[in-house]
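Following the same procedure, sequence and fold were stored together, as reproduced here:

>
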Amino acid sequence: MHSDSIDKSYQDLHIRNSWYNESMIEITYTKGDATRPQTSGVKIIAHICNDLGGWGKGFVLSISKRWPEPEIEYRKWYRNKAKNNFKLGAVQIVQVEKYIHIANMVGQHGIRTVGDFRPPIRYNAVEGCLKILEKRTKELYGSIHMPRIGTGLAGGKWEKIEPLIHDTLCKNDIPVYVYDYKE
C-alpha cells in the first residue's frame, strides 16, 4: 500500500513537470546590442563562426571591440584543430567578465564567395552547437544572448534557425534573448 502511494506521488510529480515543460520559455526579442546583455546573472553571448579560422567581419567585430579574448582563443582553437575538437558543430566558451561568456559556435562551412549559390550556414551544425550550448548554460545557470545568429554572413534564414533555438534551448527552459541591433 505504501509503495502504491509513493508511485502515485511520483506519477503526480511527473505529470506536473510534464505540464511545466510544455509551457516552455519563449525567445525574448529586444532592440539593442547583444554584446551588452541587459539581464542579471551569468550571460552567454552566442554567435556563429566559420570553420576556416576566419574572424574579421560581421558580429565578431563587435565582440572584438569589447573583448580581445574570444578572437585570440578562437584563432588558437583553429590553429590547434588537429589536437582538439574544432569542427562544424563544435562550441568554444570563453569567459570575458565575471558573469559574461562568449560562445564561439562553428556553424558555417567556409565563407560566401562570388558565384556561391549555397549559403555557408550549416543548420545541422547550428543545431549541434545549440545542444552543446544548452548543457553548458544549465551548468552555469545562465541565459543566452545573441543577434539573429546565422542570418548575416552565413546566409541562413531566421525561419529555419528560430525553430532550432526553440527545440534545443527554450524547450529545455533556457532563457534566450535575441537582439536586433539599434544604435
User: Anything to note?
Assistant: The chain has one domain: 25-180. The longest strand covers residues 42-50. Strands lie at 28-31, 42-50, 91-97, 100-108, 142-146, 176-180.
